[in-house]
UniProtKB/TrEMBL annotation:
<feature type="transmembrane region" description="Helical">
    <location>
        <begin position="92"/>
        <end position="113"/>
    </location>
</feature>
<feature type="transmembrane region" description="Helical">
    <location>
        <begin position="61"/>
        <end position="80"/>
    </location>
</feature>
<keyword id="KW-1133">Transmembrane helix</keyword>
<feature type="domain" description="SMODS and SLOG-associating 2TM effector">
    <location>
        <begin position="28"/>
        <end position="199"/>
    </location>
</feature>
<protein>
    <recommendedName>
        <fullName>SMODS and SLOG-associating 2TM effector domain-containing protein</fullName>
    </recommendedName>
</protein>
<keyword id="KW-0472">Membrane</keyword>
<dbReference type="InterPro" id="IPR040688">
    <property type="entry name" value="SLATT_2"/>
</dbReference>
<dbReference type="Pfam" id="PF18183">
    <property type="entry name" value="SLATT_2"/>
</dbReference>
<keyword id="KW-0812">Transmembrane</keyword>
Amino acid sequence: MAKPPAEKPPKNLQPLKLSAVRQPQQDEDLQILYDEVMAKLEETIRWYDWHKNHNKRLASLLRGLAISLAGVASVVPIAVSMLPDSWKPERWVPIASILAALGAGCIGMDRLFGYSSSWMRYVTAMLNLQAQRELLQFNWTRRALEARLGGGTKSDRLTADLNLLYNARLSINQVIKEETLEWVVRFSGALQDFEKSAVAQRTSMADFGHSLMARQGSLKVQIAGFDQLESHQCELQLGDASIETHHGATKAFPHVAPGQHVLRVSAQRDGKRVSSEEIVTILPGETSTVTVTLV
């Protein structure tokens, strides 16, 4: 005979909830106070439960994006090397750095806003509050059963019950206080780390800019017979850059990558098109000068 399928266990373990047991001749105000403490405890547990799930989703999203972006960034150089030369694959290599930076940004956002750490804090706080609820319910039931057996005077039982509810409320406040203090410490540390990272990044970018400037050169172009050109203008193009219209006998090209570049200059003179094409060599940190004669 086939066995019935086993019932699927719940996703999360459910806490124990006991019914409120009343004491004989219990003061009505005492029961109202117990209900108010329990209501506050339930409200606090629901708050932590909702924010736990909210931060869990955000933390999983940011961490998942960071892992995915890092994985794609590591594959991009390999994939680019397989592209045909006509696609100019070297232009796609920086995408790996962009993806890696985006992944690091996801990690930074998670650390700054504390989604992952808050998720863990909220789980811990919620479990502590659930334990406090079970403890209060057990103690309240024990006090009711003891009262049925006639233990102690009514005044003593009332004082003990008030102390029980008061200590339960203090326990709730203590859990919230400890969770909040931990949040303050983690958030302050995240802000300090973020400021240190920002300062280090600015310093790194400044050093990179200086080194980049030192590796680049510049070009100064002098156009012979510029006064004879129509409209006193000409068109210049350096390498694969766009064509520029220039009004003047001298043109400067700053921040040019070292190496050999093709310089093209064209203009109108006496109703005819005149032009020149030169190969110029740019040296790092130096200014090269070339004189162009249009023919």
